[in-house]
Amino acid sequence: MKKLLSLLFFVTSPLLFSQNSTSYWQQHASYTMDVDVDVENYQYKGTQKLVYTNNSPNTLSQVFYHLYYNAFQPNSEMDARLQSIVDPDRRMVTNIGTKENPIYESRIAKLKPNEIGYLKVLSLKQDGENINYKNEGTVLEVTLNKAIKPGEKVTFDMTFEGQVPVMIRRAGRNNEDGVALSMAQWYPKMAEYDFEGWHADAYIAREFHGVWGDFDVTLHIDRNYTVGGTGYLQNPQEIGHGYEDKTKPLTIKKGKKLSWHFIAPKVHDFTWAADPEFTHDILKSKSGTSLHFLYKNDKKYAKSWKEAQALTEKALDYFNENIGPYPWKQYSVIQGGDGGMEYAMCTLISGGETLGSIIGTVYHELAHAWFQHLLATNESKHSWMDEGFTTYISTLASNKFIKNGDDKPNSDSYRRYFYLVNAEIEEPLTTHADRYHTNTAFSTASYTKGSMFLTQLNYIIGEENVKKSLKKYYEDFKFKHPTPNDYIRIAEKVSGIQLGWYLNEWTQTLHTIDYAIAKIENTNITLARVGKIPMPIDVKVTYKDGSSEDFYIPLSMMRGEKPTSATLLKDWAWAKPKYTFSTSKEIKKVEIDTSTLMADINRENNIFIVE
After folding, report:
1. Are residues 236 and 94 in the same domain?
2. How many domains does the chain have?
């Protein structure tokens, strides 16, 4: 028995670590890169000096780098996934069938040698000594000459070269808007090592997890190209292109290329885009953040991209107020990519012939600056926290500044969730982002059910408590890679309500909510829990004399109740399928959850009218 208990402790002890623990740690990576770009051939060569600090309690004998651009090659894992999934991303495939009977063919499979993407490591040294490494698709496996002990720093010196792929997903060249270079996932990037171990996942086209650090990046590129992205430009007077101080003289050097020098503190990625026809506008927000907008100098984009600027500042102010202060001095909205994707201190947004075609995407990607680049959950493992929380808060902001103030701004999420349940293709939110069986299940789970986690929490603990919990979450866990457990503990502290049951039921199971009015006899009302997920229940009773009364039934396992003006009834224990209470008058109508915030899959049994 002692041996068994010892074994169980050894196996499970890593799971006991919490981000709240005083033993919390995270690794640190400091990059210095110098890169020469050939805009004619879409290729580049670079050097990388990476100072890596092992803040973990473990000795590391290996490290891993991501080589994302290797995904854009025939026979890559990304290519294989496109050919096997039943509903591939339409941007990444060609329909060789008909509209009625589509047959999708992977675009990656058809790439020619001069169209593929690649990242090749040409040399790698650890503290000046050559080390062994092996390229496995989009991951570089490195065997260290000398293990890195806890608390130690090592320096990795690398030379590498890359080719920018044809635009297929997120990064690439010559997107649909004609933007020359969308440079995301472009450099060899150290994989994250945390309390769960290495996260050296192959790139399948979905989500990311990265090590926080500092970036010092110099790009040598054709002098006609305007560059925007992560970081602060250190030599604006040598560059111009809208970055310069107009009160000082320019000192631009002669030659075919300019050397753009960027510094980016405390970020976990570095992204840039470049085009010879970029317009560059700067809006100095009242909060002190400089908002940069880079878009094609084309009259079809001018009006919408100008209109988007003031609205972007409003969103920035909203997120500062409702989550926490944006800490960097700059944020850039850049025309590029293949839709919308968030990166450190910037986003790539495609399109924009009308304001409506881009502003919602701008709001969503800007909100990611908090949930992905300030809090930075592991979005490969917990995509619902990043995408869901972002969808929740950006929907509220869009509703306030873009739309007409819909009373139920998140109602579309409920409709999509109900479709997922009825189609019987739902998968648990604990599924790794790359492992969902369908893209539909992934997107609906991550964006829709993830945002509903917070919307429905308004029903459980109250709107003000949800607002307070998001601010406290930001305050306690910015720059700390929080987990789902970390947020739910914050919500418990703020509300005084126990919520472990909710985290389990909503994210780790496929259980659903369905409550019904089972019976009304005189002044007695009997409710029934039909679905598997237990919930506190709001009930509105309309009496025959025309008056009405609201009742609130807490769930016993909550060990508390939300703030409410309704009549408080005794707790309902989840194990009991039925619950009866009495009213003081004759009943005309009974309705469960008039707010419709509870994701009840069958609302037809939520209303009972006495004949």
Report:
1. yes
2. 3
